[in-house]
């Protein structure tokens, strides 16, 4: 309870309250500050609301019992996410340093936590920016009509399409062949695919420019990158609700299945999603709040950010599923029409004989009278449920499902530009926090000479990161991104978060933190915060961490590949099914951070 | 005389019936989907339409098979279904019992496909010749890929942003330098004031060197 490890010299390493007040008045030091509170809030919102809110949360919600999933999600949001958020805000605002500086001040032996945060931020930034490069590619390609992913190239004699495109679909072909030129396994590098290199150049240049002077420049950029996604989501909501079949999707998303609440995996997934959604343990939030004035009410900020994140997730999920519902209905109608044509052709019936309304009856009648012929016709089963559940998370959602849905809307280039620009803003605003979590610790660790200006540090970091991220520009880049996504962020973040809690509660001292909060905001945190900091949050994180490690240790490592030479037909579920049996490297869905 | 003509007609139609049958080796099956193509504006398929079709095919054969004048009667149709599908064969103008080869028929149809389609307000998908695959239109590809253009615009904007940023930094530094040389006298007095008041509270720990020492 009151177990505090001995920590001599703590008072010498950190400024005391009088010092803080004095520094505030004199504006001493060359530490950056926020121009206004709005910039700070928008930066934090942008950091927390990222690609995962659009393409991970809706999938989790739908697959774990729809509306019922909101219960564990919201509970864990409040019990796990909010206390950790306030902890990071308070510690940053009090000690006024970036992540390495903060942990080093608390105890030099804890510097490792800061370094771990920095490394995780760096690794995640590398593959996250690759995702942004892919989104940029789609964005660049949206300025034409018809959109390039509506067409297949022709085969040699011009009578059909290339087999890879014919068997999967135009959107699959565009993503896996034109955009990525994927090889069939991660071991097969295949060389560099230069369109991705070009987009990586663009992506890193944008980040470098926006973050040139640290939050001085990124603070201006967030006015666009943090607000625009909401505007676009609202536009898409209106557009989505007017499309045919949208309500099918929304119903599918929110139909509650209360039995799912009894499954452990639901709670684990909810906990993990909350943890990653809040971008805790990346170090960026600590940095951001260290630029705040000392008496900023960080408790209010934490509560507000929690509420905003929760509501945005639900909002984005609704919008996503209106579009998914529309696409599924389209595919269902096409499937039925296709079957009708097949049957009419086979039995030489008049076109009006079978329509969508009497399809079932006609099918049963024909099947009972001529079962052999019907069997030979290869009638596909049209199941709405399958269409609604296919390819609906990760890159599959954005580049396959949504790209296809957009091609069916009137005025598709406009919607495509809007959608991919929104994804760009979501990604870039998260990346600001990432880069902050990398550059500031690098400065604190004196990796760069002290006299280098901020611009030089940013520029060098971005350039070096670009060179390293050329790994993802290979033809096997997709598998590398998935590999990083599954292992770079998941377990390290949970571990760092757990140690952060232990460090603050038992090394820094929870009483000291309470006193600090009383000094900064005027009152001590209530009993809710005390209990969650001491017991609830650490236990939740520990449970999730242990479960993940147990599952990971038991799993065989395999991964899904896109293999045009595979025997079965390529499915639309983003990735083909057959894997060469000797290669087994994998991704366990639960552990995904972003995808 | 009349009987002879009558016999001849019977004979030729019988012969024609023999020549045209489903799965004939030199014949093709045609499938027409009016409702799919035209929806509510679809016309009814009747004898007149069939006559029109046969004359279109005769036109195609005349144009592409050199030298021979095909007539409507040379196109023999059989096995019509309510689907609107039927088989046809093409007989030679010189010898009514001889069929034109499959390859020639296919070539003629392929070359006149668009004319035949537009005559009936249909497309390759809705007027199908089973066995003759339509040559698909190649996807439109502009000379400069549009994405390169957009990329160029974005990179240009970024470069402009960097230049503007550098220039503004230099301008700001210059302005600060000017202010410093101008305002040195007034600054000196205020600085002295703060130092004086600071001396009153002795032993304030100066944190500005803290980082260096703690390394």
UniProtKB/TrEMBL annotation, chain A:
Pfam hit, one: SNF
**GO MF, one example:** neutral L-amino acid transmembrane transporter activity
Q: Where is the signal peptide?
A: none
Q: Does the keyword Ribonucleoprotein apply?
A: no
One Gene Ontology term of the biological-process aspect is:
sodium ion transmembrane transport
Q: Where does Na(+) bind?
A: 46, 53, 426
Where do the TM regions start and end? 40-58, 70-91, 112-140, 192-212, 221-241, 270-291, 303-324, 414-435, 456-475, 487-510, 531-551
UniProt keyword terms in alphabetical order: Membrane, Metal-binding, Sodium, Symport, Transmembrane, Transmembrane helix, Transport
Q: Which GO terms describe its cellular component?
A: brush border membrane
Tell me the domain of life.
Answer: Eukaryota
Q: Which PANTHER family match?
A: SODIUM/CHLORIDE DEPENDENT TRANSPORTER, TRANSPORTER
The text of the family note is: Belongs to the sodium:neurotransmitter symporter (SNF) (TC 2.A.22) family.
| Name of the molecule in the record | Transporter
Q: What is the lineage of its organism?
A: Eukaryota, Metazoa, Chordata, Craniata, Vertebrata
Automatic annotation (TrEMBL), chain B:
Q: Where is the composition biased (Basic and acidic residues)?
A: 179-195
UniProt organism field: Solea senegalensis
* Presence of keyword Phosphoprotein: yes
Put simply, this protein is called Collectrin
Q: Which InterPro entries match?
A: Collectrin (IPR042944), Collectrin_dom (IPR031588)
Every Collectrin-like domain range: 24-215
Q: How does it sit in the membrane?
A: Single-pass type I membrane protein
Q: Which UniProt keyword terms apply here?
A: Cell membrane, Glycoprotein, Membrane, Phosphoprotein, Signal, Transmembrane, Transmembrane helix
Report the record's Gene Ontology biological process terms: positive regulation of amino acid transport
């Amino acid at each position: 309870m009151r177990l505090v490890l001995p920590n001599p010299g703590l008072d010498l390493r950190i400024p005391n309250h009088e010092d803080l007040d004095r520094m505030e008045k004199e504006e001493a030091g060359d530490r950056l500050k926020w121009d206004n509170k709005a910039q700070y809030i928008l930066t934090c919102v942008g950091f927390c609301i990222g690609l995962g809110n659009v393409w991970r949360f809706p999938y989790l919600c739908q697959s774990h019992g729809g509306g019922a999933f909101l219960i564990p999600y919201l509970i864990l949001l409040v019990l796990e996410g909010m206390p950790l958020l306030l902890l990071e805000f308070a510690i940053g605002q009090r000690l006024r340093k970036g992540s390495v500086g903060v942990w080093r001040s608390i105890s030099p032996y804890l510097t490792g936590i800061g370094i771990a945060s920095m490394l995780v931020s760096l690794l995640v930034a590398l593959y996250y920016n690759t995702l942004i490069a892919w989104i940029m590619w789609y964005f660049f390609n949206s300025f034409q009509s018809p959109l390039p992913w509506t067409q297949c190239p022709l085969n040699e004699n011009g009578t059909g399409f290339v087999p890879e495109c014919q068997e999967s679909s135009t959107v699959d072909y565009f993503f896996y062949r034109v955009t990525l030129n994927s090889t069939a396994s991660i071991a097969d590098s295949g060389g560099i695919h230069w369109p991705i290199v070009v987009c990586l150049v663009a992506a890193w240049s944008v980040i470098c420019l926006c973050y040139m002077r640290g939050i001085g420049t990124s603070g201006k950029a967030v006015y666009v990158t943090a607000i625009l996604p909401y505007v676009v989501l609202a536009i898409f909501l209106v557009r989505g609700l007017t499309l045919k079949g949208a309500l099918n999707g929304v119903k599918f998303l929110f139909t509650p299945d209360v039995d799912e609440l009894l499954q452990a995996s639901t709670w684990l997934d909810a906990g993990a999603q909350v943890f990653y959604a809040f971008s805790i343990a990346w170090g960026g939030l600590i940095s951001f709040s260290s630029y705040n004035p000392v008496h900023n009410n960080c408790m209010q900020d934490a509560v507000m950010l929690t509420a905003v994140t929760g509501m945005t997730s639900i909002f984005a999920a609704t919008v996503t599923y209106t579009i998914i519902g529309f696409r599924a209905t389209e595919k269902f109608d096409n499937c039925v029409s296709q079957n009708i044509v097949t049957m009419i052709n086979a039995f030489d019936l008049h076109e009006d004989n079978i329509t969508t309304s009497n399809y079932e009856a006609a099918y049963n009648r024909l099947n009972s009278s001529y079962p052999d012929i019907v069997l030979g016709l290869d009638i596909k089963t049209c199941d709405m449920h399958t269409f609604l559940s296919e390819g609906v998370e990760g890159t599959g959602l954005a580049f396959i499902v949504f790209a296809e849905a957009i091609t069916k809307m009137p005025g598709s280039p406009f919607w495509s530009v809007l959608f991919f620009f929104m994804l760009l803003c979501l990604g870039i605003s998260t990346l600001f926090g990432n880069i902050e979590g990398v550059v500031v610790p690098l400065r604190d660790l004196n990796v760069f000479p002290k006299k280098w200006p901020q611009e030089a540090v940013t520029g060098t970091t971005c350039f070096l990161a670009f060179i390293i991220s050329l790994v993802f520009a290979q033809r096997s880049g997709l598998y590398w991104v998935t590999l990083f996504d599954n292992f770079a962020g998941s377990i390290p973040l949970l571990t760092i978060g757990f140690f952060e809690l232990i460090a603050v509660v038992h090394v820094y001292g929870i009483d000291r933190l309470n006193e600090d909060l009383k000094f900064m905001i005027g009152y001590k945190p209530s009993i809710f915060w005390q209990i969650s900091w001491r017991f609830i949050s650490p236990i939740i994180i520990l449970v999730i961490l242990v479960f993940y490690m147990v599952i990971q240790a038991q799993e065989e490592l395999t991964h899904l590949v896109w293999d045009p030479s595979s025997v079965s037909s390529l499915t639309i579920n983003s990735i083909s099914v057959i894997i060469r049996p000797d290669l087994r490297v994998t991704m366990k869905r639960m552990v995904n951070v972003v995808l | 005389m009349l009987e002879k003509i009558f016999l001849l007609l019977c004979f030729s139609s019988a012969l024609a019936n023999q020549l045209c049958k489903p799965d004939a080796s030199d014949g093709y099956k045609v499938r027409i989907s009016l409702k799919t193509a035209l929806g509510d504006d679809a016309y009814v398929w009747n004898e007149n339409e069939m006559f029109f079709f046969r004359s279109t095919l005769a036109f195609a054969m005349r144009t592409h098979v050199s030298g021979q004048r095909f007539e409507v009667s040379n196109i023999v149709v059989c096995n019509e279904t309510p689907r609107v599908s039927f088989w046809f064969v093409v007989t030679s103008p010189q010898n009514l019992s001889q069929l034109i080869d499959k390859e020639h028929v296919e070539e003629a149809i392929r070359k006149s496909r668009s004319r035949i389609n537009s005559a009936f307000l249909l497309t390759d998908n809705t007027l199908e010749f089973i066995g003759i695959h339509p040559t698909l239109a190649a996807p439109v590809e502009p000379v400069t890929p549009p994405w390169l253009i957009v990329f160029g615009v974005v990179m240009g904007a970024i470069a402009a942003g960097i230049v503007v940023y550098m220039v503004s930094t230099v301008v700001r530094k210059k302005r600060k330098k000017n202010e410093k040389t101008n305002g040195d006298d007034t600054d000196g007095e205020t600085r002295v004031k703060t130092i004086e008041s600071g001396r009153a509270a002795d032993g304030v720990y100066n944190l500005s060197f803290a980082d260096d020492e703690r390394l």
